[in-house]
TrEMBL record:
Protein name (Swiss-Prot/TrEMBL): Flagellar protein FlbD
InterPro entries the record matches: SwrD-like
Keywords: Cell projection, Cilium, Flagellum
Top-level taxonomy: Bacteria, Bacillati, Bacillota, Bacilli, Bacillales
Highest taxon in the source lineage: Bacteria
Classification via PANTHER family: SWARMING MOTILITY PROTEIN SWRD (PTHR39185)
Length: 89
């Protein structure tokens, strides 16, 4: 079973990026705004808006959690419409 590196969480703050781990064990940071898709083939493959594909040790769920934390940190998810919520009348 693959597991991500311990302690690799989205950093707090408005300019934060997510920290991920390449298959060779080398850590890198990624601006989650450039992520188009995250899939498992079975390795977790991230496709960027540029078409670049990155393969990481973290599971698809771990990447999804980091992306959600990233969006919360930059307050994109503070808009109820972006969260999929409807206005209360």
């Amino acid at each position: 079973m693959r597991e991500g590196r311990a302690g690799s969480h989205a950093r707090p703050g408005p300019n934060s990026m997510i920290e991920l781990t390449r298959l060779n064990g080398k850590a890198f940071t990624l601006n989650a705004l450039y992520i188009e898709t995250v899939e498992s083939f079975p390795d977790t493959t991230i496709t960027l808006t540029t078409g670049t594909k990155l393969i990481v040790l973290e599971s698809e769920d771990e990447v999804r959690q980091k992306v959600t934390a990233f969006y919360n940190n930059i307050q994109i998810l503070s808009n109820p419409h972006l969260r999929g919520e409807k206005d209360e009348e």
